[in-house]
Each structure stands twice: as structure tokens, then as C-alpha cells.
Amino acid sequence: MKKVLLTALVAGTISVASAQNSAVNSAILNHKNGTLDKALTDIEKATEHKKTKDKAKTWFYRGVILQDMIGNPIYGKQTDEKTPITVLESYNKAVELDGENGEYGKQVPERKQMLYGQVLNQAVEYHNNQDWPNAINKYELAHKISPQDTTAVLYAAYAATADNKYDQAIGFYNELLDMGHKTEDVYKAKVQLQQATEASDEAVMETLANGLKEHPNSVYLMQEELKYYLKNDRADEAMAKLDKAIAADPKNASLYAVKGNLQERKKNFDAAKETYKKAIEVDPTNFDAYYNLGVLEYNQGADVNNKAAKMDYATYQKKGKALEAEAKKHYQAALPYFEKAHEIQPEDKATMQNLVNVYTRLGRKSDAEKISAQLNK
């Protein structure tokens, strides 16, 4: 009698387990046939039953079924903003139960990459509609799905900036830097945001210093650093730093261009001109040196012109013409520098506007109109 009862108990146990495994198998079959709503009903039952709730297969297919419902023209309406999170949790549960090299665990990375693409596309859609909070949420989820990928974090920074959430944007840029994504643009954007939020000079200078370690030839970062040196009465320290850098890398035209800019800020215009010319000697295609020389000459001409304009009539009759002639020499000196800068960077609008101004000052109306037409395209 005991033997019979034992056999019946075992038979009953096998029957229950088989029924629950059938729920998983039924979910898989319904998924294969495209009836995702039925597949979901089956798999949710399996996730709650004690015989199948700890099976990697159950959680893997729960993730697969829910993921394939996202964006589906028929079943997509049964999903919501939390569905991708549920999918991710299901895959993570499958790996937890099966290990990374298990039958189902090893299939998870490919599925996660697909999920990353789905969520990123949702983020981009929100982004394009300028729904910044939802875009940021989706970018953050995409990053959670694929922690090594920098794209979602970068675009989250863009979205936060567009939403005027500057502190949040700085956080995203810091995350990018921690991930090793240390491009010049990241440092540049972080500096600009720090300036917009009125961060301390020390904080901004720390970012600039770190950026220059990664991008020692960045003219933008060097020039911004110079601004803070000057602001904090450290011009001599800045000059010493530049001279040391030039001694170590005398063929670096960008260093001369930045040094010329510093000399110009200190009103040492003759020295600035010579330094800019040195930059051109080292690199005949250095845009900044040509452009800055043009600006320096033009501004000197404008200063002389302004003196003549402020004279009373009697004084102008005596000295005005000579001053105007002196100003014209500066405009003529500026012209070839702006023309060369325009040749190097033909799309630069500031250069084109300055060319229009110089041509106008020199009475070259047709040339001014030609450049103005390019500027207004």
C-alpha cells in the first residue's frame, strides 16, 4: 500500500510540473505564431508558479515576448513606458539564474543590444519633438541597457542643455569623461556650461587644465585658460607657461597664435603682430594667425578713424586727412590677412563680414557686394 501511495504522489508531482512547463512551451509557441498577447499571458503565469519562476528559460522568454511587443502595430498598444525596464529586468534575471554562459544567458547580450536600439530610437523621437524630459529618461535607460556605449549619454547632455538644465548636462559630460570619452568637444561644452552656471574660476580652470592635458593643441581651451589667467591677474604666469610650451614644441603654430592673443590682450600690439607672423612662418595655413592679424590691423585703423571723427571742424582741417590716410594703411594691411583666412576657411562668416567691412572702407564696392552675397546665402 505504501508503494502505491508513493507512486501516486510522484505521478501527481510530475503532472503539475509538466503543466507549468507546458505554459512556458505554450508561450514560446504563441510567440512563434505571432499571438503575442496569448504568449504574454502564458509566460506571466510561468513567472509566478513555484515550479517555473526560478527557471532562466521563463525569464528569458518573458523578456523576448515583451520586447517584441514594443513597436508592434497590433500589440504595441499593450506596452507602456515601463515595458523596456521590465524587459531589461527579465533578461538580467535570466542571466542571474543561468550565468553568462548558460543556454539562455549567452543569448541575452544580443537581445539587450536590440533593446538598446529600440529605446534609443524612442529617445530620438522625443528629442526631435523637443520633449526633453522624456528624451532624457529614455537616453538614461538606453545607457543603463548598454553601459559602455557613450552615444546615449552624449545625446542626454544635448537634451539637458536644450532644456536649460545646465547642471544636469554637466553631470552627463562628467559621466562621459569618467567613461573615457574625452573629446575636445566634451571639454568645450562642459566649460561653456560651467560659465553659464557661474561656476567658480577654480572649477572652470580645473576643467580647462584637464582638457589641455588631453588636447594640448586646442586653441579654444588655451584661449579660455588665458582669459582666467588674466582675470585673476596671472598674465605673467600665463606667458611663462606659453613660453615653456613653445620651447618644448617650437613647431606648434597654435601656441604662437595663442601667445599673440595674450600679447594683444596686454596691449602689446607690435609684439603680437610679430608672434602671429611667427605662427604663419611655422604653419602657412594657420587660420587663427591670419584672422587675428587682420583684426589687429583693422582695429588699429578704426581707432585712428575714430580720432578723426571726433575732431572739431578746424582741427579736422589741419589733421584729419593725415589720420584718415593712416587709417587706410591699416585697412590695406588687414586685407591680405582676411583674404588668406577666407581662403583657408571659406565658410567662416566672421571672416566674410570683416572682408565686407574692409572692402567698404577701401571703396571696393563690387568686392564688398560679392562677399556679402556669399555671406547671405
From TrEMBL:
Keyword Signal attributed: yes
Keyword entries, A-Z: Repeat, Signal, TPR repeat
Signal peptide coordinates: 1-19
Gene3D superfamilies attached to this UniProt entry: Tetratricopeptide repeat domain
SUPFAM superfamilies tied to this protein: TPR-like
Start and stop residues of the TPR repeats: 253-286
Pfam families: TPR_11, TPR_19
Superkingdom of origin: Bacteria
UniProt protein name: Tetratricopeptide repeat protein
Organism: Pontibacter actiniarum
Native organism taxonomy: Bacteria, Pseudomonadati, Bacteroidota, Cytophagia, Cytophagales
